[in-house]
TrEMBL record:
PANTHER family, per database record: ABASIC SITE PROCESSING PROTEIN HMCES (PTHR13604:SF0), DC12-RELATED (PTHR13604)
Family label: Belongs to the SOS response-associated peptidase family.
EC number: 3.4.-.-
Protein name: Abasic site processing protein
Record keyword DNA damage present: yes
Keyword annotations of the record: Covalent protein-DNA linkage, DNA damage, DNA-binding, Hydrolase, Lyase, Protease
Keyword Protease in annotation: yes
Highest taxon listed in the record's lineage: Bacteria
SUPFAM superfamilies: BB1717-like
């Protein structure tokens, strides 16, 4: 699973890469993010109601209510920031979004941690002309969070689709990695049929990826976010 990613791509570059017209860019003044944690806002590319691509900010993670096992009282909602590729067409949490609300999540790297006390962070990126070339994760989105009270109940949220880990990621995380899309597949993921989109849920080739950073892990506490 992925609980931390980065998007250091400039706003102008995102408009060009993802073919978003200026008037469809709703990010305001975006400066890039070196660490994006669950529940925090980040750029997402989605199809608007009139069929055009647009850039919007969404909180990372579909929210669902939780209650305390000790008291039975409501506690902070869970944030489902990863969606397994083998569950998208069967799970009630994901199915409608997979069929109707797929999105692109701009990124420049993602982190997986290995070991404990302390963990070692491994940052993965794709290869290219730059140190961390921009790319897109396969994502889903939804508007409004059912059964969630307060401001969070009105959030726009996105989640990241995961698949089987490739040979580069497997030594760090043996089972899962985010789905990274090829540029020529962006249209299919955004607006193609469910069957065509499903074919894109596969591990990104390991020989086209690289580890760009390795070191002692950072925690969500540094960003004042719950450790989910």
């Amino acid at each position: 699973m992925c609980n931390l990613y980065a998007n250091t791509t400039s706003q102008a570059a995102m408009r060009e890469i993802f073919e978003v017209m200026g008037q469809r860019d709703h990010l305001g003044n975006y400066r890039g993010q070196s660490a994006i944690w669950p529940k925090y806002e980040a750029p997402v590319v989605r199809m608007s109601e009139d069929g055009e691509r647009e850039l919007v900010e969404m909180h990372w993670g579909f929210l669902t209510p939780q209650v305390s096992k000790k008291t039975g009282k409501p506690i902070k909602p869970a944030a489902w920031n990863n969606a397994r590729d083998d569950k998208l067409r069967s799970s009630g949490l994901w199915k409608d979004s997979f069929l109707n609300r797929r999105c692109l999540i701009p990124g420049s790297a993602f982190r997986e941690a290995k070991g404990k006390n302390p963990a070692t962070d491994f940052w993965f990126a794709i290869k290219g002309g730059a140190a961390r070339p921009p790319f897109a994760f396969a994502g889903l989105w939804r508007a409004g969070q059912p059964s969630i009270d307060g401001e969070a109940g009105d959030w726009l949220t996105h989640t990241m689709v995961t698949t089987t880990a490739n040979d580069l990621v497997k030594p760090v995380h043996p089972t899962r990695m985010p789905v990274i899309l090829d540029e020529q597949d962006y249209d299919t993921w955004l607006a193609g049929s469910a069957e065509d989109a499903a074919r894109l849920m596969r591990p990104f080739p390991s020989d086209r990826m690289q580890i760009v950073c390795e070191g002692i892990g950072i925690t969500a506490d540094t960003a004042a976010v719950d450790d989910l």
